[in-house]
Each structure stands twice: as C-alpha cells, then as structure tokens.
Amino acid sequence: MKPSEPIPLSGTAYKRDPYPLYAQLREAGPVHRVRFPSGVTAWLVTGHEAARQTLADPRLGKNHALGNDGWRARASIMPEPQHSQLQVHLLHQDPPKHTRMRRLITDAFAPRRVEALRPRLTELADALLDALPEDARRADLVACFAARFPFQALAEVIGLPPYLADRFRREWGRVVAPVGPADPGRAAYEALLRELQGYIAEVVADRRAHPGDGLLSRLVAARDADELTQEELDSMVFQLLVAGQEPVTNQITTALVALARHPRALERLCAEPELMPAAVEELLRYDAAFELTTWRFLAEDADLHGRRVPAGDSVIVSLCAANRDPERFPDPDTLDLDRADGSHLAFGHGIHFCPGAALARIELQVALRALLARLPGLRLAVPEDELPWIPAVLGRGVSELPVAFDTPVCPVSPR
C-alpha cells in the first residue's frame, strides 16, 4: 500500500480485534487517513492525549453543514425528508444550539437520579433471567438479556410507557448504519426509517395527550413552549431511542467477552462482587462499545497534531485506540481490575461527553452482577473466533453471545 492511500478499517479480522492495527497507527503518529467499507474517508486520531485535545478542540464542529461535497456524497445519505427531520439532534450540533438542547436532558440522567433507579433496574435484570427455562444451561445472552435490558432501563428513565416500549423494534436501530442509494438493501433501509419515524410521531402524540414527569413529556412540553422546533424534538427522541440503548447492549457483550479472555479476573469478580464499579471502568477502557466517535469538521484548512487537514474533511477519534495507549495506561492490553487510573475515554470528552454515562455505568454494574451471580460457571459456549462481531462502522459488540453455565439459573439472592 502506498503511504498516501487511506488505511482500510474493514474486514472480519479488523472487527474481531482492531487493537493490533491501532497499536501500529499510534506508533506511527497520532493522525492517519483511513477509509471505511462504504468508501467514506476520514482523518483518524489515535493516541490518548491527542484524542483528548481533539475532542475538546473548539475548531472542530459537529454540524453536518460543515462537511464538504465529497463527504456528503458518501456519508450524509439519509433521504429527505427524514434527514432534515431526524438529524438535528445533539450529536450534530455546536454551541450555542447544542448548549440549549443539552440543557433539556441533563437532569434526567444526573447521577443522583439514575442511582435512585438501581433497585428498579435490578428487578428488571432479575426478571429477564427468571424468564429463562428452568432447566436451561445454555443461552444466547444477546437475545435473552443484552438486547432487552438496556431498552427497559432507558424506558424507565425517559418515561416511555410500557404499551409503547413493547412496540419498539430493535431493528429500527439499523437506520444509523450507512446504506447508500445504490445499495441493494436501500429499499428495506428506507422502509425501516419510515416505520421508526411513524413510531416517533406516535410517542410524541401520546406524551402530549398523556403527559407525565418523564424526559419525553418534558421535551414535548419544551416544543409546545417553542423552546424546541419540531425537527429538534423528533431528532432528540430519535437519538434517545436509538443511541440511548444499543451501545449498552454492545458493551455488555464486549465486557463478557473480555472476562472470558481473562478467566482469573472473571473468577475474582464472581468471588468479590464489591469490585464491580471499578471492574466496569476497566472493562469500558479495555474494549469500549463506542469504538469511534461520530464526525467532526474543520471550518477551514488547519493543522491537526502535525497533519494538514482540509476544511470539510471528516475527523474521527478512535476511543478504543486512545484507551489502549501505553503512554497513558501501563500494560494496556491486559484487563487489570486493580488499575487505579480510570481516565478512559469510553464516553468521550468535552462538551459532547455522553450525557447518559451515569446511567450506562449503573446498567453495566447491575447487568454484570446479575449475570455472574445467577449463571454460575458462566463461559462462552462456542470458540471465540466464531462469535459474530457486528459490522457497525463506529461500534463494537457481538450480535449473538452463546454461553453455557453449570446449573440452572440461581434464585435471586437477598439484597
């Protein structure tokens, strides 16, 4: 490969384990030109310090209007009218608009609020495990748990009533994956998008007719008070429903795969559940479900960590590469439950730091505690190289997680 050619971020081996490539890139420098399977090219930032600086760099904007024609032709491909109606959420905004919109949601995800939900989230996790057959000794933890628990938790936080939550289809989340106009799956993609948009309209109408004290009702009230446009409201609901739960689903799977790779750490965590908060931080560092950030753009040509980046080119930060930087984390490829430094970037950094980070942390603690306590001897039921890693551009996780355990599901222990 010529040095000037973009480095491909694709293939089965890369999705299974991108860390050897990230190590090579870090050693060669902090910024590299890369290409995704869709043909989209970007400037990828890898090192921990370079990542922190980039995520807080005021020169880099998130608004897609900053992208150049070449980027829009391949990456900004959601059709109209949905693009204009669903793509003005927080991930695509800059101050002061971003500041105004984010202020409306931060209180719902405040640590004190989500901590108060821990008992309820524990009930939800236990109920899912109670539903396993009494004689079960094998299960797909994605289908029976990881794909369900995070959405149930999210519904509690945002005030999505059960009669609406039960109708949400997980496959609607696929609309964030790039499907170009000439792709054979374009028609199915657009059908899913229209279905999701119809569901969002129903949610908004329901919360307007039956307001409660949840976040969804407060966002509808903000729209009715002209604090939000209709497009901003629909986009924020879109972001909550799609981005608010799928990363936790994937993080549960990456955490369990990591523990399977480190059996001594798994045994210790089973024996010492009080280590769970620290263990979750280390699992987030070791293999974050948000592998890459979404796009950022420079308004004019500028230097970025020694590379000249043209205006409108997309810039992406590899959170996973930053979290395995040996200059920041000694022996970074080892899962160390005693690692004292928790300054990972799994939730980002700067003004776009994940507003749901506190909720995600509690969800992961509750989920892993329940799984390890109630499925004794938990282990992979297939060789690791047979796990189907999702083909997502920005995220990591497996679509199926077959596991085995020694005895049927243990009863809920006193808490």
From TrEMBL:
It comes from the Bacteria. Pfam families: p450 (PF00067). Transmembrane segments: none annotated. Keywords: Heme, Iron, Metal-binding, Monooxygenase, Oxidoreductase. Belongs to the cytochrome P450 family. This is Cytochrome P450. It comes from Streptomyces gamaensis.
